[in-house]
Amino acid sequence: MKAALQKSPISADRVFEAKMLKEPHFDPNWHFHPEYQLFVVLRGTGTRFTGDHLAPFRQGDFVLTGPNLPHMWQSDPEYFEGNKDLWTEGIVVYLPEDFLGNGFLEKKEAWQMRQLLTRSSQGIEFYGNTNQQATLLMQQILLQHDFGRILSLLQLLHLLSQSTECRQLASAGYTNQLKASDTERMNSVHAFVMKNFREKITLDEVAAIANMTPTSFSRYFKTHANKNFSDFLTEIRIGYACKLLMDENIDVAQVCYDSGFYTLSNFNRAFREITGYNPLAYRKKYMGAG
């Protein structure tokens, strides 16, 4: 598996690149690139990885990532099973670091946008009314041409720079330790985990996939993911459980076992540690939020 970098190189005669994505699943490769990226999910569910942060995503997920911040929107396993009734849609915008020209961001009028782009080094998720307005502007960018696209982009960045309806994703201390040569190894591990997290996974198995000893793999993974492999696996399972809890017809015990846990006590403890809620309280809160 080759390292996945930015899919649509920005033409030398364009300020930025924007495109609609419509595929059976989102690209399952852990990757990073030198551009800022705006991405909104219009259809699909799965797990979003941003630096050392991971969380379930669904329709409406809107994130800004900064240059060279590793990221991936990993569709749920069922999107890889050939079901023609399941597919994903999203809009992505790539912005080069100098898309506003040299010196613009140093001007007084641009201080809010400068702060926004600086904070994007950790990834920023937008929600609420900001999310709705930003999604409409992303759609508008696709429909417009030439300078109209630039005006819509500036309007979008202005909206995001003023918003308080946002949260940082990667931890404050996170720095990308990956080299391009590391992405193939990490992608192999991610692919194995995302395919098998509902079953028992041992450290020996994933270490073998990475062609490393268990001890070496543990150190390697902690360095690059900023967390232990066991914590990473638990977060994947809890993220999937969060999605299952949105279906009121699935009881908590079934969610537990379908997410890869073997006892309700372990599931409930891990769920509370990661989300701050017990499973039923989470269902009530987020089903009520629509």
Summary keywords:
41% helix, Arc Repressor Mutant, subunit A, disordered N terminus, alpha+beta, globular, six-stranded antiparallel beta sheet, 290 residues, 10 helices
Report on the architecture of this protein:
The longest helix is centred in the middle third of the chain and has 16 residues. The N terminus is likely disordered. This protein has two domains: about 150 residues, Sandwich (Jelly Rolls), CATH 2.60.120.280; about 110 residues, Homeodomain-like (Arc Repressor Mutant, subunit A, Orthogonal Bundle), CATH 1.10.10.60. Strand 3 and strand 4 form a beta hairpin. The protein has a six-stranded antiparallel β-sheet, with helices on one face. Strands 4-3-6 form a three-stranded antiparallel β-sheet, with helices on one face. The chain is of the alpha+beta class and about 290 residues long. The protein is built from ten helices and nine strands. The protein is globular and about 55 Å long. Keywords: DNA-binding, Transcription, Transcription regulation. GO terms for molecular function: DNA-binding transcription factor activity; sequence-specific DNA binding. InterPro entries: Cupin_2, Homeodomain-like_sf, HTH_AraC, HTH_AraC-typ_CS, RmlC-like_jellyroll, RmlC_Cupin_sf.
